[in-house]
């Protein structure tokens, strides 16, 4: 594998630099999205079959699978659970992820779909929906600043995008990206819905299931 990277660098140093940047971005944040600053060129290089194969082999050694979804404008790495365990999340992080999956689905059903399958909401509307969700689950509610901090963490991973704050309205737009359906797949949703309905969940950590790409439409997986 090292020789293939060396060959690419000798043949096309500029492309190799982009490959290095893409790998670094995925290692830091797990995902990248075409609409984020600087990510368009990184996704473009990953769409080249020879580069995608090389980068996929690199992450496979570490127990991750590279996924590139051109139609949804993102690329990311998902753990291969046959080699490594699921990532672990605090329950509050998991609930916020579940919330945005719900809001994204509602937007899709209502036809409020932006480019790349994204759905737009606002911070205040999302927080109101969060309060309603945790109240029905008989769980203590996070304050708005704590909630915003968890949304910011999703923004860093490119799962959502937080827009500029409207000082007058004290609100901001949030774009929920289609990759939420991969991060919080059907198994994840069913498990969390069951826990919320029964109030039977742990305060410490919960596992984050990963979508099974073997069942995905081949046209959606670049």
Automatic annotation (TrEMBL):
Biased composition (Acidic residues): 202-222
Region feature Disordered, mapped onto this chain: 199-222
InterPro entries found in the cross-reference section: JetB
Protein's UniProt name: DUF4194 domain-containing protein
A Pfam family matched in the record: DUF4194
